[in-house]
Amino acid sequence: MKNGLLLLLATSLLCIQCSLDKPVIAPKIDKEKASIQLMKELVPQLTGTWTIRQLQIKYQHSQFQNELKIRKDTILTNFATLTLARASQQIDATRDRYQGYIQYGPKTYPIRFDLLAGPWIFSKKGPKAYFLLEYNFPVGTSHSTEKEEYFLQQIGLLLENFSLETAKDSMIWHGLNRGIAQIDLIRK
C-alpha cells in the first residue's frame, strides 16, 4: 500500500511538472509600430479612383430614411465615383489623412477622412481601419447645401463612421452608425 501511494505521488509530481511547462504567450505587439506599418501598406491600396459598385442601405425606420422615402432595405448600384489621394498634411505617423472627391450624378464634392488602425494589427483579422467620411470644403467658405449633398448625408454616406477592409483592387466599407450597412468599391 505504501509503495502504491509513493508511486501515485511520484507520478502525480511528474505529471504536474510536465503540464507546468512555460505557458504559451502571444508575442507583445507594439501598437504604434504596427499602426505605422499598416498606414504605409494602405496607401497604395486606397489611392486612386473607385466606383461605388454597390451601396446597401439597411432600413431603420429613421426620420432621415422616411424623409427620403426609403421604406425597406435598399441596394443602389453604380452609385458614385470616389477619387482618393493621401493628403499632403498628415496628423501623425499612426493615422493617415486622405482627401479627394466624390462624384454623385452631375455633382462633385470634396471629401476627406482620417484612418485609425483597427484590430487587424493584432490578429490580421477584422477591420484594418476606421474612419469618419466627411466633406472637405475650404475653411471659412460658406455655401448652400445642394439637394445631392443633402441626400448623401441623409442616407448615411457622408458624416458617417466606417470600418475598412481591403483586397486587391476592391474595398468594403461597413457603416457603423446609420443606415448604410455596406459599400462595395472597385478600382477603376
CATH topology description:
Lipocalin
Share of residues in helices: 25-40%
Tally of strands: 8
Strand content: 35-45%
Question: What is the end-to-end distance?
Answer: 82 Å
Order of helices and strands: HHEHEEEHEHEEE
> What's the CATH C level?
Mainly Beta
CATH architecture: Beta Barrel
Average pLDDT works out at 87
Report Rg: 25 Å
Overall morphology: globular
Low-pLDDT runs = 5-9
Q: How many distinct helices?
A: 5
SSE order and pairing:
Layout: H1 2-19, H2 31-46, E1 48-57, H3 63-67, E2 74-86, E3 95-104, E4 107-117, H4 120-123, E5 129-135, H5 147-154, E6 160-167, E7 170-175, E8 180-187
Antiparallel strand pairs: 1-2, 1-8, 2-3, 3-4, 4-5, 5-6, 6-7, 7-8
Provide a short characterization of the protein structure:
With 188 residues, the protein is an alpha+beta fold. The protein has five helices and eight strands.
Question: How does this structure look, described?
Answer:
This protein is of the alpha+beta class and 188 residues long. The protein has a single domain (32-187), classed as Lipocalin. Helices cover 27% and strands 39% of the residues. It has helices at residues 2-19, 31-46, 63-67, 120-123, 147-154, and strands at 48-57, 74-86, 95-104, 107-117, 129-135, 160-167, 170-175, 180-187. It has an eight-stranded antiparallel beta barrel.
